[in-house]
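Table S2 (text version). Query chain:
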Amino acid sequence: MVVLMFLLWIILNGRITVQITVIGLIGTAVIYAFISKFMGITIKKELRFIGKTGLFLRYCAVLMVEIVKANFAVIRIIWDRGRKVEQTIYTFEVDLKREISKTILANSITLTPGTITVDLVGNVFEVHCLDVSLIEGIEDGKFMQLLKKMEA
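Corresponding structure-token output:
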């Protein structure tokens, strides 16, 4: 984080001089010390976060693919006039430990067309699905696998 703050300082200044570099180093060190003391951020936590950045980017890519696939599924449901839509509320339990992981999963489900996370209490999700066919893979799909890896 210190490196990123320092690089941001240099970029925002637009040039590199000795004075700008020294002030930037001192400023970022003071800000980092403040953040470390009052927000509980440590170098160990930062290194762990950097190590999981690849997994997070992979999660974002999987989310984009799932959004596109769900868009096409919803389009098929809309265009098939003879088909009877079977809306449902699907309840399932997850074994994610961290609240942020549960929140990311709930938001990912809501971002995917045709599904909305209605409620999240503890480890139990309630999801409204536009059609029963959209439930497939919600409980133990790619989202869950990647979130479990990120928690580990």
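Notes on Table S2: The mean pLDDT is 88. The two ends are 22 Å apart (CA to CA).
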